[in-house]
Amino acid sequence: MRESDALHARALAFVGAFAKGLRMPESFDTLACDVARFQAKRIDGFARLCLARGVEPSAFRVSRDIPAVPTEAFKAACVRWFPEEEILATFRTSGTSAGIRGTHSLRRPETYDTAALAFGRWALTSDCPERPVVLILGPGPDEAPDSSLTRMAALFAERLGAVDSRPPYFVSRGVLDIAGIDDRIAESTLRGQRVLLLATAFALVHFLDALAGAPFPLPPGSRVMQTGGFKGRSREVDSRALRRELSRVFAVDERAIVGEYGMTELSSQFYEATLCGGDPEIYVEPPWARIEPVHPETLDPVEDGDVGIARIVDLMNVDSAVAVLASDRVRRRGAGVELLGRLPGSPPRGCSLALDELLGEARGVE
Amino acid sequence: MNRTCDERLRDVRRLVDAAREVSLDAAVVEALVATTGLTRPGVTLALEEHLETRPSEDELRRLVERAGTAERVHVVLSSNVFVGALRALAVARAASERVTAAPSRRASVFARALVERTADPGLSIDGALDIRKFGGGEIHVYGRDSTIAHFRASAPKGVRVRGHGSGLGIALVTSWADPTVAARALARDVAAFDQRGCLSPRVVLFFGGEGVGQEFSSELDRALVSLEDVVPRGNLEPQESMAVARYADAIAFVGRLWRGKAHLVGLAPKGAPLFVPPSGRHIHIALVESLSDARARIATVAQFVTAVGSDDIEIVRGLVDHPARVSRLGEMQRPPLDGPVDMRGQSVVTEATS
User: Fold this and answer.
1) What is the CA radius of gyration of chain A?
2) Are B179 and B307 contained in the same domain?
3) Is the pLDDT of residue B351 over 80?
4) N or C of chain B: less Cβ packing under 10 Å?
């Protein structure tokens, strides 16, 4: 445990330095490799993965050397080194038609919270002179206790938002409380307070559908954080079209619609830095996490600018998997990565069941 | 005019005879090697051992009896292993005097050659048929669920759409099986069509603990290596290769992996949720304690199971609730020519309502 705690401290030093605008305390690769070596020592599955890939943890020099754990492993095994009684938070992926959910357990959720808060503050509120009113188009922790997104949203409401004793959640049992959110927005407008609206893309589509095109202006300076796909929970909307429509309905600049990319299996998040001078559609990494596109078959890094599968190294995943292989296609562009969705399905040969048929293409995003 | 049973049998036999001739046609073999993704030995294996060129009289009678009667049948061969065209056309021709077929653009060689060689005035290729104008009769769709759904939505009212979706084979190996014999037989089932058939086993339920499970996994690995020397695997689709890479790393983390030049064997620990590996000679072994444990383990995929193979075929009859092809290991890819391979039955038959 002492070794893990020391690694947590080193990981959190990255966050502290970022929050203070200081240089990172050490090299990303050094810490990533140390965390990976620790995990190879303590997590049998990771040791087996290293063996199967023919890599020796003591030989790790850069984070690229670390085999990434596919997200599928989180569905079938305990991706952690510590015993069950030390679990303080458990996040689960949303279900698929195959009914298996991935699980990510944390021993020190404060590491998750600290990192999420620091990067969220930078991406969403760094230009705000005062704390915005945080409103959440989603359920509260009572209703979704194992959702990492819900935890993060609650954290943002508490630590980034203006003090308010009322619950910030406006979805209950799948029903949008449009009247409730309307009241709070009207109140914020009267008080001249900005609003930070946090929502999944599918919740926003339901919200837009409920409004039937009517405007729903947010107070000046407000912003919207949207995350995740549609997963069959609403109609599918092209991301640019959704951004345009949200901008129109909420009467905010398109740059104030900020995309977030996160996964249950990670402890870090990625944002479009449009409020910090970045480009839309480009998700930037915090200094403690990296997204690298890798070839889908060889899992080797692709040439710069080429499309690959997201291999994510997350220094905050001290007790689980420091390198995770996601299913999304990404391409490095400028200061970040473009998210390009899943690999398009090629027509199958033969009549054997295709995996996407089995999984119903549902994806566990937070 | 309604044909007698013997007349229907005659029409089906004509197809079978033509299939035998087509299987010996070097030009067809060349074209199949070029288009199916299988190697030449893979194509030869399919034609020599899995094309039903010697059905018994009883089998054909059962096929005719099960086929029913239709004014006309249009067969859509959207995705199936290439030899599947024979069974699909035989079922359709048994049912109707007027059969048209639309082979997929990617895998039309065998179906076209078969129709041409049969030279049956009641059977023709029609890849451009407008389904919305199809009047009466039946449409038999062999393809993915989404393709079947499309035809159900597009077919005119009164047209019966028989859907034969994609499926999955499951093998069950008992603790009293000889592991070497069982592994060799199973490897043959896996290698046929490079595991792309809807009867192809992709999951093994193994009765026993970790130790014997590892022993069986090693045997299966060895059997697949040996088979690769004789019948090399063909090309994988990019998406298959991607899924292979993910499966390999995931099962290495979760359990144990045996990796061959062109196959994977993954052994999951007891109690782990079921993984279904991608097709292309990849087998996932799950350890189970009993038939009820086996049923629980496959609950999430049971609806897709079209074939069950085992060293003890009596014990596996109750593995899934719906009808499925049950056979000994090594015979999973050789179902009798007595009707569609997919026996999931009437649940896949619907009548279009629009």
Assistant:
1) 20
2) yes
3) no
4) N
A346 to chain B, minimum CA–CA distance in Å?
A: 7
Among B109, B138, B165, give the residue marking a domain's end. Answer: B165
Length of chain A: 366
Name the closest residue on chain A to residue B258, using Cα atoms.
Answer: A52
Nearest to A355 among B104, B106, B278 (CB): B278
User: Rounded to two decimals, what is the model's pTM?
Assistant: 0.89
Give the whole-angstrom CA distance, residue A275 versus residue A273.
5
A342 has a pLDDT exceeding 70: yes
Using a CB–CB cutoff of 8 Å, tell me whether A53 touches chain B: yes
> Does A211 contact B at CB distance below 8 Å?
no
Determine contact: A213 vs chain B, CB below 8 A: no
Would you state the structure tokens that stand for residue A227, as one six-digit string?
């995350």
CB contact at 8 A, B326 and B171: no
Co-location of B206 and B288 in the same domain: yes
Chain B interface, best mutation among A48, A97, A101, A352, by max B CB count within 10 A: A352
Residue A345 predicted with pLDDT over 60: no
Note the ipTM here: 0.89
Dihedrals phi, psi of B106, to nearest 5 degrees: -80, -25
- Which domain does B84 fall in, by range? 5-165
Domain span at residue A236 reads 111-287
pLDDT computed for residue A361 by the predictor? 35
Rounded Cα gap, residues A234 and A232, in angstroms: 6
Q: With an 8 Å Cβ cutoff, are A343 and B239 in contact?
A: yes
CA B224/CA B149 separation, integer angstroms: 37
Residue B168 C-alpha, separation from nearest chain A C-alpha, in angstroms: 6
The residue in chain B having the minimum alpha-carbon distance to the alpha carbon of residue A329 is B242
Least-confidence region, from A128-137, B136-145, B330-339: B136-145
Helix H or strand E segment including A109:
helix A109-120
Q: Which residue of A has its CA nearest to B252?
A: A49
Write the residue in B168, B244, B268 that is nearest to A76 by C-beta: B268
Q: How many CB atoms lie within 10 A of CB A231?
A: 19
Q: How far is A61 from chain B (nearest CA, A)?
A: 21
pLDDT tens for each residue of B262-315: 999 999 999 898 889 999 999 999 999 999 999 999 998 999 999 999 999 888
Residue type, A293: P
Q: Closest Cα partner for A15 from A121, A147, A92? A: A121
- Do both A48 and A139 map to the same domain? no
What mean pLDDT is predicted for residues B45-66? 96
